[in-house]
Amino acid sequence: MAGGDELKLLGFWGSPFVLRARLALSFKGLSYEYVEEDLKNKSELLLQSNPVHKKVPVLIHNGKPVCETQVIVQYLDEVYGANGRPSLLPVDPYDRAMARFWAAYIDDKLLSSLMMMSMGKTEEEKAEGRKQSSGAVETLEGALKECSKGKPFFGGDSVGYVDVVLGGFVAWVRIIDRMTGLKIFDSSKTPILAAWLERFGSLDAAKAVMPDVQRLVELSKMRQV
Amino acid sequence: MAGGDELKLLGFWGSPFVLRARLALSFKGLSYEYVEEDLKNKSELLLQSNPVHKKVPVLIHNGKPVCETQVIVQYLDEVYGANGRPSLLPVDPYDRAMARFWAAYIDDKLLSSLMMMSMGKTEEEKAEGRKQSSGAVETLEGALKECSKGKPFFGGDSVGYVDVVLGGFVAWVRIIDRMTGLKIFDSSKTPILAAWLERFGSLDAAKAVMPDVQRLVELSKMRQV
């Protein structure tokens, strides 16, 4: 980090979007001040830093706020891309486009189907969510095969942008598995992705910021009441 | 354009998302083959090039497909960013983050409220859409003031990423105005944005690819039946 650089992250421990920012900071080996927000009583700093959405995560870099999870991750990658720190986005423009495409897919298709599956109001809605999740996971299996080219991560030999974006959901995938008894990343149906999940979750830089699964289960139960 | 480069765009004349890609190509002065798709009978090339979403726009660059409108625009900017061609995204990482933030805002908030306003199934839904659109446009007025720093475009002196992303909607804003009798970019409420709309729409590179408003009105009426 450049001398005098000050990084602060406003977050909430249970947010997968905040987790992405923390994963990016962690994989890039950046030190920062983490400020936990009370979402029922948001701080003045949060409201001033993100007046449009009033949401976490917000990264504050030398007093200047950056909002929205994918914007934050790309910003960190652009500011701290050199000096021996790992890059998350690939160098080649076509590979970058593919990474952005799959990151958008995860937010558009995987997220909405997981939400429907776990928070659906009726059994029909939950069943539809399961069906769509299953389809999205199979599509991602193909993407991982294509992007990784036989290597362990979407980013190849090391963690990249799509790994971080999908990695934000790792703990949630586990709690949905635990709460529903289903396996979303099933090793018989999507073996490459199931192996990725284990591999990613066992990295030190990921474990350092990953929330506790039992605590997430409790949060999730509270929200369903 | 590098010698031997082949650019092809699969599109539909009435899509604001396709228009963004055409605007980017036009502002960058790139020549390309435009292929109009029949969305009721999609070509094999479209289905093969975008097997995940099966949607336009798809940019095919030397045989390799790039899908999703914002991904395409960023790809074009990265591949054709040098050699005197105008850059759409700013150079400074913080300004780039701001541009990505507002581009996401346009897709998340402005688009959904305009859809609700013009395609809502009930009068209440349409009224709620009008209210939300009005709020989103006021927020964008502030963004334009901040990003442009008194210059004519979001990108400053020349058209940038946010201009292209918002520019995709220029013709649609005009038809919604015409069909509903409302002014979405009202010069009394949001004078900077209203002036931007006129300025952007009158640029030769925009006019060259902008669809005919009367034809769009007819398309829009057909879709509401």
From TrEMBL, chains A, B:
<dbReference type="InterPro" id="IPR045074">
    <property type="entry name" value="GST_C_Tau"/>
</dbReference>
<dbReference type="GO" id="GO:0005737">
    <property type="term" value="C:cytoplasm"/>
</dbReference>
<dbReference type="InterPro" id="IPR036249">
    <property type="entry name" value="Thioredoxin-like_sf"/>
</dbReference>
<dbReference type="InterPro" id="IPR036282">
    <property type="entry name" value="Glutathione-S-Trfase_C_sf"/>
</dbReference>
<dbReference type="InterPro" id="IPR040079">
    <property type="entry name" value="Glutathione_S-Trfase"/>
</dbReference>
<dbReference type="Pfam" id="PF00043">
    <property type="entry name" value="GST_C"/>
</dbReference>
<dbReference type="Pfam" id="PF02798">
    <property type="entry name" value="GST_N"/>
</dbReference>
<feature type="domain" description="GST C-terminal">
    <location>
        <begin position="92"/>
        <end position="225"/>
    </location>
</feature>
<comment type="similarity">
    <text>Belongs to the GST superfamily. Tau family.</text>
</comment>
<dbReference type="GO" id="GO:0004364">
    <property type="term" value="F:glutathione transferase activity"/>
</dbReference>
<protein>
    <recommendedName>
        <fullName>glutathione transferase</fullName>
        <ecNumber>2.5.1.18</ecNumber>
    </recommendedName>
</protein>
<feature type="domain" description="GST N-terminal">
    <location>
        <begin position="5"/>
        <end position="84"/>
    </location>
</feature>
<dbReference type="GO" id="GO:0006749">
    <property type="term" value="P:glutathione metabolic process"/>
</dbReference>
<dbReference type="InterPro" id="IPR004046">
    <property type="entry name" value="GST_C"/>
</dbReference>
<dbReference type="InterPro" id="IPR004045">
    <property type="entry name" value="Glutathione_S-Trfase_N"/>
</dbReference>
<dbReference type="InterPro" id="IPR010987">
    <property type="entry name" value="Glutathione-S-Trfase_C-like"/>
</dbReference>
<dbReference type="InterPro" id="IPR045073">
    <property type="entry name" value="Omega/Tau-like"/>
</dbReference>
<keyword id="KW-0808">Transferase</keyword>
